[in-house]
Design goal:
Helix content is 27%, strand content 15%. The protein contains 19 helices and 20 strands. A hairpin with a 2-residue loop joins strand 17 and strand 18. Its EC number is 1.11.1.6.
């Protein structure tokens, strides 16, 4: 049962603010003051010795204002600098009391307040949302037992096995130090030089080259806790656990050409989608799942659960859904909340413990260290976004930016001058699980961490043909941007260990001889039927996966137990219209989209009244790459029929080339579709519902949105 002194977790108004955050909110209006509360008479002119004279040093209002401005930018995160956050709650739907005493995982129905930050890894704070990169997925739980931070990614594995290599990994992927180029991109020499010399990265680099690294939105990507943790129950029994977030809207990604164009058209694309969804009263939702297993089970596997470059395949240990995460409130202030929020994997609550994963052990040190640097000192926990639900009670004092006023003269323990409190609680306090340890001090990697290829092959084997093709093209793009030939060759050697056919397709694009006998000859086209067939069927024997050779959970497209059913919910559609558009047609398609919780913008040659609709976007301010589908309604534009308008044609052609659903109403809309037939090469445009081209039926178009992409425009096996 919940301690009566502890604030209730269940929030009767999920959108309500936490009261302790609300207390620091400044209400607008009233008299302008300085930061010490002094009323200001003039904030437009500095104090001078005469109107044309020099500014006086005694103008303390000026000095305070400039002082704050000079220091209002804190150091950005070294990694994960580009981030976006939202508030919400976690609700437990199945108790794990059999495995842990952590209240957040035992009290069914309780709603734990959360703050979640999504981020890219490599780019600076001002970089775009859509580079090819792993995404951070960090969740802060404000539990009655203290803060729990689940600091994960949208990939379940990491590039390195030991934290001592982390600075080298990050230095390699950051812009090269002599010219600070390229920004937010791994497609350069230093990154691939490091990867080619670091075989343990092979599994994660397969994830990074897959569609997983360019998610369509935050709520269409999975999240993972990455490491294995321990859960401890009331009897002291230990169960190992891996954490998973499964998106309710399903798994969806951008295509690479689209991701690059969005970076220029709308660098805030993912951030804007989340903000607009919540701002309109919507939510972002995930199911929360766990993989539970014992050390005895793990001892029989041919890989080590402590190795952060390995997964526990879901085909080996199924994910059990035990809760849900709902994000439903945007931050009030980006800096105060999203930028100042501080996560630490060492923030766990009683009933949890760490494992001996060497990367996790290093992260537990590094994250605390970085908060001191970024947030100015030891009192960063007092910032509203980082505060626990219940006020801390300890003997810590002083330091930069201390906000807590501690009365009395006692600041130590044990003491007899302040009733001896606060005191440790041996029963309810955090206790580490007693693990027997012995050994010689060494700097070496355990033999159980030595297989770097097997799970990379498992990932490859589990992908669908179109996913394999995209992964192949990603390697081609990245390595073609590497200028040093010996680095390219070294990476081909590594890729060949996963599969020689994959290495051959990449080699051909780099002007190198193929690595497999059964592959297209040099000079062949990447799109040849022979090459595509080879990529579709090339499998390899898998090791280090507990006997699993293929796991559909690793594919974004293959059906598996916890993948969501296709839905048009949350999709954004461009409704193309010219002056004089049919109002009834506009209303029909809008009603069909609203009925399925899809969103839309009316895009026209100008803003405002089009006769039968109000345009909220124009062809110059909107781009097809930021929409999930296009529906043509007709009308005239600039004196021309919409079908003859170049920008309208481009909208349809680009959407079709990116495999998105396309729809049209009436003769005018159909004429626009006809006009783009020659603009979609190498694809062949056809009015065919099987290819996602729907005419005359708004409901059918809305259902076509659920499929997301129509890869069969590319090749039969897709």
């Amino acid at each position: 049962m919940t301690d009566p002194k502890t604030p209730a977790l269940t929030d009767p108004q999920p959108n309500a603010k936490r009261q302790d955050l609300q207390a620091d909110t400044v209400n607008p209006g009233g008299t302008l003051t300085d930061n010490m509360g002094h009323a200001i008479s003039d904030d437009q002119n500095s104090l001078k010795a005469g109107a044309l004279g020099p500014t006086l040093l005694e103008d303390h209002f000026l000095r305070e204002k400039l002082h704050h401005f000079d220091h209002e930018r804190i150091p950005e995160r070294v990694v994960h600098a580009r981030g976006s956050g939202a508030h919400g709650y976690f609700e437990l739907t199945r108790s794990l009391a059999e495995y842990t005493t952590a209240q957040v995982l035992t009290e069914v129905g309780a709603q734990t307040p959360t703050f979640v930050r999504f981020s890219t890894v490599a780019g600076f704070r001002g970089s775009p949302d859509t580079p090819r990169d792993i995404r951070g997925f960090a969740v802060k739980f404000y539990t009655p037992q203290g803060i729990w931070d689940l600091v994960g990614n949208n990939a379940p594995v990491f590039f390195i096995q030991d934290a001592i290599k982390f600075p080298d990994l990050v230095h390699s992927v950051k812009p090269e130090p002599h010219n600070e180029i390229p920004q937010a991109s791994a497609a350069h020499d230093t990154f691939w030089d490091f990867i080619s010399l670091t075989p343990e990265s092979l599994h994660t680099i397969m994830w990074a080259m897959s569609d997983r690294a360019i998610p369509r939105s935050f709520d269409t990507m999975e999240g993972f806790g990455v490491h294995t943790f321990r859960l401890i129950n009331a009897e002291g029994k230990v169960t190992l656990v891996k954490y998973h977030w499964k998106p309710v809207l399903g798994l969806h990604s951008l295509v690479w050409d689209e991701a690059q164009k969005i970076a220029g058209k709308d660098p805030d694309y993912n951030r804007r989608l989340m903000w607009d969804t919540i701002d309109a009263g919507g939510t972002l939702e995930w199911q929360f799942g766990v993989q539970l297993f014992t050390e005895e089970q793990a001892a029989g596997w041919d890989f080590d659960f402590r190795d952060p470059t390995k997964i526990v395949p879901e085909a080996l240990v199924p994910v059990e859904i035990v809760g849900r995460l709902v994000l439903n409130r945007n931050p009030d202030n980006f800096f105060s909340e999203t930028e100042q929020v501080a996560f630490m994997p060492s923030n766990i609550v009683p009933g949890m413990d760490f494992t001996e994963d060497p990367l996790l052990q290093g992260r537990n040190f590094s994250y605390l260290d970085t908060q001191f640097s970024r947030l100015g000192g030891p009192n960063w926990q007092e910032l509203p976004i980082n505060r626990p639900l219940t006020p801390p009670q300890n003997n810590q004092r002083d330091g930069h930016m201390r906000r807590t006023i501690n009365p009395g003269r006692v600041s130590y323990y044990p003491n007899s001058l302040d009733t001896g409190s606060p005191t440790p609680d041996p029963q309810e306090g955090f206790r580490s699980h007693p693990v027997m340890m012995s050994g010689v001090k060494v700097r070496e990697r355990p033999e159980s961490f030595s297989d770097h290829v097997g799970q990379a092959r498992l990932f490859w084997n589990s992908l669908t043909p179109i996913e394999r093709e995209h992964l192949c093209r990603a390697f081609q793009f990245e390595l073609a941007n590497v200028e040093t030939r010996h680095v390219r060759l070294a990476m081909l050697d590594q890729i060949e260990r996963v599969h020689p056919v994959l290495a051959s397709q990449v080699a051909i694009a780099l002007g190198e001889p193929p690595r497999a006998g059964q592959t297209a000859k040099p000079g062949g086209t990447q799109d040849s039927a022979e090459e595509m067939a080879l990529l579709a069927t090339a499998n390899a024997d898998v090791t280090a996966a507990g006997g699993v050779q293929h796991d559909p959970a690793l594919s974004q497209r293959a059906p598996s137990e916890h993948k969501a059913e296709p839905t048009p919910r949350g999709r954004l559609v461009a409704l193309l219209a010219g002056d004089g558009v049919d109002a009834a047609a506009v209303e029909a398609v809008q009603a069909a989209l609203k009925s399925q919780e899809a969103k839309f913008h009316v895009v026209g040659p100008h803003l405002g009244d089009l006769g039968g609709a109000q345009a909220t976007k124009t062809f110059s301010t909107a781009s097809p790459v930021v929409y999930d589908g296009v529906y043509a309604l007709g009308g005239t534009a600039g004196g021309l029929p919409l079908a003859e308008h170049p920008d309208a044609q481009m909208f349809v052609a680009e959407a079709y080339r990116h495999y998105k659903p396309v729809g049209a109403h009436g003769q005018d809309g159909g004429a626009l579709l006809d006009a783009v037939a020659g603009r979609t090469a190498p694809l062949t445009f056809a009015k065919d519902e099987a290819l996602g081209v729907v005419t005359g039926n708004p409901d059918a178009f809305t259902q076509a949105l659920a499929r997301h992409r129509y890869w069969n425009r590319l090749s039969p096996q897709a």
